[in-house]
Design goal:
The complex is a heterodimer of chains A (164) and B (426).
Chain A: E1 7-12, H1 21-29, E2 37-42, H2 48-51, E3 57-64, E4 71-74, H3 80-83, H4 109-118, E5 125-132, H5 144-163
Parallel strand pairs in A: 1-2, 1-3, 3-5
Antiparallel strand pairs in A: 4-5
Helix pairs in contact in A: 1-5
Chain B: E1 2-5, E2 14-21, E3 24-32, H1 39-43, H2 51-56, H3 63-78, H4 84-114, H5 120-126, H6 128-149, E4 158-159, E5 162-163, H7 169-173, H8 176-194, E6 208-211, E7 222-225, E8 230-231, H9 236-239, E9 240-245, E10 248-255, H10 266-273, H11 279-287, H12 300-321, E11 337-345, E12 348-356, E13 362-368, H13 370-385, H14 394-406, H15 412-415, E14 419-425
Helix pairs in contact in B: 3-4, 4-5, 4-6, 4-12, 5-6, 6-8, 8-12, 10-12, 11-12
The chains are: A alpha/beta (164), B alpha+beta (426).
């Protein structure tokens, strides 16, 4: 990482349709040159485990098909039951299980958060931003509604980081 | 019928359906219900320069294998030859991907099985130092991919002919201390993994992998098997065929004309190429006390662990000798042609074929991932394994079936051009 390790913002996603949302938020934040932050893109949630040791504050951005507006959760204050189901299952009972990156395609965000807590590397501040999306298949383009939410999310995150 | 409706701790979505008549296993179906990916169709009409970038997106965990196999196939079609230095950097790229992918699979997906744990979180509660060690190995793999590939996520620096930009000596040398630590850590991991309790289960596999006269195979070589096959990759489709099956959106590959299953992956590679492992990896293999060749799928994790040792040792050798490559990319002129290539993804043999027109546009693409090649073998394994566990409760049977499937580290979303086990008792 070339930027500071104090604040880490990670966009999780892929190049398919609205699944680009997390990456596009990172692209939108980069020109703002906010001091002391590190911006990263991840294709798989478990890459977070490479970057969070030693980080004080984490903002995680991912697409989600469930909601209709940008959502924000404080991961350090949200209960495990609200965040996700029992580890190792696919029951979509919690917030994290509905994220695009939390399908069975890879190790889920829920498991990554739990593992970080177990290994005592979880940042003191951890915020999840979910961006609503509807199209996620290979070959899909970004929808206009998701593009709008990307801009909104980037502005909200920038505002929060500058006021911190 | 025993049914596992959604496999867990594998990459992708799949289910398992078993039909029993008394204690006899009548049918086993590994049902993949991922939507088909259509990448082969997506590539048609695109320029050949776009192919590595597009194929990298087939898999978030092993993008290099897809990129590089496409590049090798296209270079064959165009008659491109790369320098020895570019060749070495490509092997370094594979080392990075193997370290990363094997590290993830072992520590986050597979090792929990050997301790009766349902997740890496539970494993980390019992073995925090070992899991932390494994995560550090994974990070090293990603760090190397970032230096060579431009970024760890869908690398952008690899191209037909070589690399867009050669990495600086300084950036590669900055990794050496970590990789020296990693080599020792990988050896400790291999020793730990080899100490696990393994079910006594072997199968008379035909194991298939690349083989090279001078090196442990990664991205070049002949395709060989434990049954005596030895062919150039251009002959792949005369000996292997992908077929559709009604119960799965993933294709299944068979040997032709026998129409039999076969096994690809680290166990096949080690079985067929033990003498080409690096010196420390060979020593570790000898010290572990496992009898080779090994046909127990549960011990594939040992093969993975030994390959991580090899990847670290070879990475150090390449990095310490590295001088910046100039030019980083061989030149070529688009011409009509057809090319085939096979390389070794972390999960096993991967094959690509492309046709290119006079303008450098793709007119045909065929991609055969390792997981589709193992599909039929997994079903066959389960058919043989189930009679040994049918006396258990159904949830325990389901769990044991999942464990066997996880030995193959299936990358299910790649295999489609979660495990719910359903058992029908008739």
């Amino acid at each position: 990482m070339t930027e500071s390790d104090d604040v880490l913002v990670v966009g999780v996603g892929s190049s398919h349709g609205d699944d680009q949302a997390g990456w596009l938020v990172i692209d939108a934040l980069r020109p703002q040159k906010i001091a002391s932050i590190c911006l990263r893109k991840a294709a798989v949630p478990h890459d977070l485990l490479d970057w969070i040791p030693g980080v004080h504050s984490l903002h995680l951005v991912d697409a989600c098909p469930t909601f209709h507006s940008v959502q924000r959760w404080d991961l350090t204050k949200t209960s495990h039951k609200q965040l996700g189901a029992n580890p190792g299952t696919l029951e979509p009972t919690g917030i994290l299980q509905n994220l695009r990156s939390s399908g069975s395609h890879q190790i889920s965000v829920c498991d990554v958060i739990d593992l970080a807590r177990t290994l005592k590397i979880m940042p003191t501040i951890a915020v999840l931003w979910a961006i609503p999306g509807t199209r996620f298949q290979p070959g899909d383009t970004l929808t206009d509604s998701c593009a709008r939410c990307v801009r909104i999310a980037a502005e909200l995150i920038e505002s929060e980081l500058r006021s911190a | 019928m025993i049914e596992v409706s959604a496999l867990t701790r594998v990459e992708g979505e799949g289910a398992l359906r078993v039909t029993l008549q008394g204690d006899e296993v009548v049918d086993v179906q590994l049902a993949i219900y991922e939507p088909p990916r259509f990448f082969e169709a997506l590539l048609r009409g695109r320029s050949l320069e776009e192919v590595p970038d597009i194929t990298a997106r087939i898999c978030g965990i092993c993008p290099i294998a897809y990129q590089m196999t496409s590049i090798h196939a296209l270079e064959q079609a165009l008659g491109v030859t790369v320098s020895p230095q570019i060749r070495q950097l490509r092997r370094l790229l594979y080392c990075g991907e193997w370290i990363e992918s094997h590290g993830v699979h072992m520590h986050l997906l597979h090792i929990p099985d050997f301790f009766g744990r349902s997740s890496s979180i539970e494993l980390a509660q019992q073995y925090p130092d070992e899991v932390a060690r494994g995560l550090r190995l994974k990070k090293h793999g990603n760090d190397l991919l970032e230096v060579l590939g431009g970024r760890a996520v869908h690398p952008i620096n690899v191209a037909v002919g070589g690399f867009y930009r050669a990495p600086s000596k300084q950036r590669l040398h900055a990794l050496i201390d970590d990789f020296r630590w990693g080599l020792d850590a990988a050896i400790e991991t291999a020793k730990w993994v080899a100490s696990f309790d393994f079910p006594d289960f072997t199968q008379p596999y035909e194991m298939v992998a690349l083989q090279h006269d001078d090196e442990y195979p990664m991205n070049e070589g002949r395709i060989v098997s434990t049954d005596g096959l030895s062919i150039d990759p251009s002959e792949y489709e005369r000996h292997f065929e992908e077929r559709q099956v009604g119960h799965s959106t993933a294709l299944q590959a068979v040997r032709i004309p026998e129409e039999t299953s076969y096994h690809v992956g680290p166990l096949a590679r080690v079985n067929l190429n033990r003498d080409k492992l690096s010196p420390r990896a060979q020593q570790v293999l000898e010290d572990l006390g496992v009898s080779w060749p090994c046909f127990n799928p549960f011990q594939s994790i040992i093969a993975r662990a030994v390959e991580v040792v090899h990847a670290y040792e070879e990475s150090l050798q390449i990095m310490m000798q590295y001088e910046p490559v100039s030019p980083p990319r061989a030149q070529y002129v688009a011409r009509p042609g057809e090319g085939m290539a096979a390389t070794e993804a972390p999960r096993g043999l991967i094959y690509h074929r492309y046709r290119v027109d006079e303008k450098g546009k793709i007119t045909f693409a065929k991609i055969v991932p390792p997981t589709s090649q193992n599909q039929l073998q997994i079903e066959s394994d389960l058919r043989a394994f189930l009679p040994t566990i049918l006396d258990r409760q159904e949830d325990a049977i389901a769990m044991e079936c999942e464990k066997l499937i996880r030995c193959y580290d299936p990358c299910i979303s790649c295999a489609t051009h979660f495990l719910k086990l359903r058992i029908d008792r008739q």
